[in-house]
């Protein structure tokens, strides 16, 4: 899929506007809860970034990773550990450092896992994700299972002038939103490039791509590193928002939720996983508001999606649009 | 470490390894033959442990708990295979991962609804509640030995069933070429149900047997699942023999690792896995 069909582009544009103008109408619609919902939306937007980054692996390259949260959590830990104790870290060095660490770990994990495929890859990525979890869970320097606090949010200033104040909810909201759009653009660009075409080819039939003469292992490693870096961006934003990081953020349940967002939204569509993140988190919020056993309901939703909506919401939208197009052509003829 | 300590640690690691083998053999069996990854395997272990707790509370006997627990686990396995897994054979592993992940969330909540979130203990049966003295001041609990014996017997039994019986022959044939076996008139669908139920029962039995050794608590299946995945990855997916040696290796590493290199104790097991992957990406016995 090279181009998003027009109706879907319009829908996405509309949804983006709904998000972008939230600060204008939030107070009117949600009253006193508006500020709470803005934080909630920020969290969801960050998850959307995580889900889209995972889609590069799952939907585009065909590598099902069950350890993607490793990089999400690692970003938070790097932010917490590399920030000076009593002053805010400058974003100009802390963000590149965070992304670099995630890319480096991504390269190591990719190097070790890329020779495996299918079910083996799933198991191995899951195990490596848990290795990170137990490492931070048992390490004293990172606060064990309690995790670490990030007392002061990264400072965004240039030449002594503060450009953005990340302590303001609205600023962080718009920054996350901008990052989401940026990541979407980056992934679309990758998809259109020759590199992206090779990844799609690997997903469809790796043997053939190999036979043409591509070194598929290298392509897969690069794809894994890019996905890890983008997950790191999501983790950086998340840690900046919460003000803390703990091992459960990199646990395999988080990886499972991210995978669920991808499938729910439609793997391989890029925009789908973002929608999936919204649907997943909104369901989570609704279920949580009336029962303690919301996880059970989420589990049931997962099973239903697997059984009845394998192409996800994005896939359903695409086939709806395509059906309309074909019937339209028939009418013309 | 003196000799007696080493001996006791060795016994512990063998016992832990055998228990791990019991649990991971179910996982590797289901994957090797059916091509299904069952992430809910750890949850089955947890259910087994809670069943042990419930039945022991009720009847006071672990033996009865085993006799009642295994049929319950078999039924759970049959139901899950028939209603959920059955529709996934022809589809991507991704969907098996998600479906069984959803199953974990559901089973964890069912556990918390039925038994609450407290930690429970299961008493060691009186008959096995002694210890054998090894030296003047060191002894080894009988129950641990009994668990090892049971696991070893099951390992031998499993080997015998798979290598020497007609059922085992069909299982091996079904693993290597499903269509061919079907065309010979063997009902692979029933075979798959049997294997999945057996896998679930093995995990459940592992849970029942380890309930008196460790406490019974929510989410106890998660850790076990990950360790079993490591065992299966090290041994080679689908290989029972691999699961055995993988489990023994992990048993040794996780018993002696914390003593020898305490700082790396939590990640030691994974480092071993990484090492094996570097040398043999498809596992030791694949």
Q: Structural class given helices, strands, pairing of chain A?
A: mainly alpha
Strand count, sense and barrel status of the largest sheet of chain B are: 2 strands, antiparallel
CATH class of chain A: Mainly Alpha
End-to-end Cα distance of chain B, whole Å, is 36 Å
Most extensive interface, chain pair and sizes: A-B, 41 and 43 residues
- Our count of domains of chain A comes out at 1
Q: What is the oligomer described by this structure? A: heterodimer
Radius of gyration of chain B: 19 Å
Main sheet of chain B: which strands, in order across? 1-2
- Gyration radius from CA atoms of chain A, angstroms: 20 Å
Question: How much helicity do the residues of chain B have?
Answer: over 70%
Instruction: Tell me the fraction of residues in β-strands of chain A, as a range.
Output: under 5%
Count of helix runs of chain B? 11
The class by helix and strand makeup of chain B works out as mainly alpha
What global shape of chain A is seen? globular
What amount of the residues of chain B lies in strands? under 5%
What is the 3D shape of chain B? Answer: globular
């Amino acid at each position: 899929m090279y181009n998003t069909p027009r109706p879907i582009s319009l829908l996405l544009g509309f949804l983006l506007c709904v998000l972008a103008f939230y600060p204008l109408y939030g107070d009117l619609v949600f009253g006193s809860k508006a500020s709470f919902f803005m934080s909630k939306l920020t969290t969801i937007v960050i998850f959307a970034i995580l889900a889209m980054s995972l889609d590069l692996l799952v939907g585009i390259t065909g590598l099902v990773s069950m350890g993607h949260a490793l990089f999400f959590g690692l970003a938070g830990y790097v932010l917490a550990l590399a920030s000076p104790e009593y002053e805010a870290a400058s974003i100009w060095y802390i963000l590149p450092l965070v992304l670099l660490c995630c890319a480096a770990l991504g390269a190591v994990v990719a190097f070790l896992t890329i020779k495996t495929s299918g079910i083996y890859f799933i198991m191995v990525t899951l195990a490596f994700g848990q290795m990170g979890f137990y490492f931070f869970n048992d390490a004293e320097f990172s606060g064990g299972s309690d995790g670490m606090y990030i007392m002061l949010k990264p400072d965004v200033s240039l030449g002594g002038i503060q450009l953005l104040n990340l302590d303001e909810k609205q600023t962080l909201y718009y920054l996350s939103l901008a990052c989401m759009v940026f990541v979407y653009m980056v992934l679309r660009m990758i998809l259109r490039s020759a590199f992206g075409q090779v990844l799609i080819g690997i997903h469809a039939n790796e043997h053939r791509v190999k036979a043409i003469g591509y070194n598929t292992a290298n392509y897969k490693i690069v794809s894994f590193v890019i996905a890890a870096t983008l997950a790191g961006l999501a983790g950086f934003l998340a840690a900046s928002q919460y003000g803390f990081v703990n091992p459960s953020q990199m646990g395999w349940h988080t990886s499972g939720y991210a995978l669920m967002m991808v499938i729910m939204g439609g793997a391989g569509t890029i925009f789908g996983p973002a929608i999936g993140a919204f649907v997943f988190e909104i369901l989570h919020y609704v279920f949580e508001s009336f029962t303690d056993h919301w996880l059970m309901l989420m589990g049931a939703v997962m099973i239903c999606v697997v059984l009845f909506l394998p192409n996800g919401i994005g896939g359903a939208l695409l086939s709806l649009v395509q059906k309309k197009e074909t019937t339209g052509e028939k009418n013309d003829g | 470490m003196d000799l007696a300590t080493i001996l006791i640690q060795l016994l512990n690691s063998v016992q832990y390894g055998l228990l791990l083998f019991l649990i991971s053999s179910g996982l590797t069996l289901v994957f090797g033959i059916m091509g299904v990854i069952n992430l809910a395997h750890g949850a089955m272990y947890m259910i087994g442990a809670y069943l042990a707790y419930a039945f022991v509370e009720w009847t006071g006997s672990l033996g009865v708990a085993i006799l009642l627990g295994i049929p319950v686990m078999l039924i759970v396995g049959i139901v899950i295979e028939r209603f959920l897994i059955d529709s996934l054979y022809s589809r991507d592993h991704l969907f098996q991962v998600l479906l069984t992940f959803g199953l974990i969330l559901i089973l964890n909540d069912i556990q918390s609804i039925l038994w609450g979130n407290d930690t429970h203990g299961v008493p060691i049966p009186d008959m096995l509640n002694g210890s054998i003295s090894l030296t003047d001041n060191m002894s080894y609990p009988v129950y641990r030995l009994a668990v090892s014996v049971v696991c070893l017997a099951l390992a031998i039994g499993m080997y015998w069933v798979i290598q020497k019986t007609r059922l085992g022959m069909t299982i091996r044939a079904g693993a290597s070429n499903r269509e061919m076996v079907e065309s010979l008139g063997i009902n692979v669908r029933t075979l798959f149900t049997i294997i999945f139920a057996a896998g679930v029962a093995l995990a459940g039995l592992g849970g029942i047997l380890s309930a008196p050794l460790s406490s019974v608590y929510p989410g106890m299946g998660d850790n076990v699942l990950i360790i079993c995945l490591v065992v299966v990855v090290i041994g080679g997916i689908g290989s029972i023999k691999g699961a055995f040696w993988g489990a023994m290796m992990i048993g040794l590493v996780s018993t002696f690792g914390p003593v020898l290199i305490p700082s790396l104790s939590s990640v030691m097991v994974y480092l071993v896995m990484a090492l094996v992957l570097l040398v043999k990406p498809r596992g030791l016995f694949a």
